[in-house]
Amino acid sequence: MADTQASAERRRVLIAEDEALIRLDLAEMLVEEGYDVVGEAGDGETAVRLAEDLIPDLVILDIKMPIMDGLAAAERIAGGRIAPVVILTAFSQRDLVERARAAGAMAYLVKPFQKSDLVPAIEIALSRYSEISALETEVAGLTDRLETRKSVERAKGELMTKFSMTEPQAFKWIQRTAMDHRMTMREVADRILAEGQEPSAEVQPPQ
Known about the structure:
The chain is α/β, with parallel strands linked by helices. Helices cover 57% and strands 13% of the residues. The protein has nine helices and five strands, in the order H-E-H-E-H-E-H-E-H-E-H-H-H-H. The chain has helices at 2-9, 20-32, 44-54, 70-79, 97-102, 115-138, 142-163, 167-180, 185-195, and strands at 12-16, 36-41, 58-62, 85-90, 107-111. Strands 2-1-3-4-5 form a five-stranded parallel sheet, with helices on both faces. Helix 3 (44-54) packs parallel to helix 4, helix 7 (142-163) crosses helix 9 and helix 8 (167-180) crosses helix 9. The longest helix is centred in the middle third of the chain and has 24 residues, at 115-138. It is elongated and about 55 Å long. The model is unreliable at 1-8 and 197-202 (pLDDT under 50).
């Protein structure tokens, strides 16, 4: 039973990296950390096609790839809401990080990276993607969506600072409170921000 449950929770990852040795090392790291590598690609175009076919839980893309680079592939994959994206970048390419974020990447890894860097980047990407998906489900209009994200980001910061929550804990608290009180996440976030140091009992985080 435990084995079945663990298998069901394994995240399915697609890797796109044109250097075969790095791709092999990355796949080995992922498997050792309990992820399932469901596909590998050596160029961005193949990565997009595999992402559309396999619908993985996460896609890891190198920036520099032939045919279609990682930024263009990230725009297609993240823009199509197929999966969250982690970008691989060489240290000298760190100026491309902002472009990667603009393309929809949720996190990035600077090469050469260690196995200890890999899991946090993946979990950040999955967490941020989950948050954005939840907010987009709640709010239809683009302008309202952006304003909602701003309010929730600021409210998360308040909760993290005042109650020593992690970022995922703060978001889950806002999400749960909204459901419990039949409010939107924007309303909960705005109330946290408006009440400053002392949130009301209705939306009081645990001490």
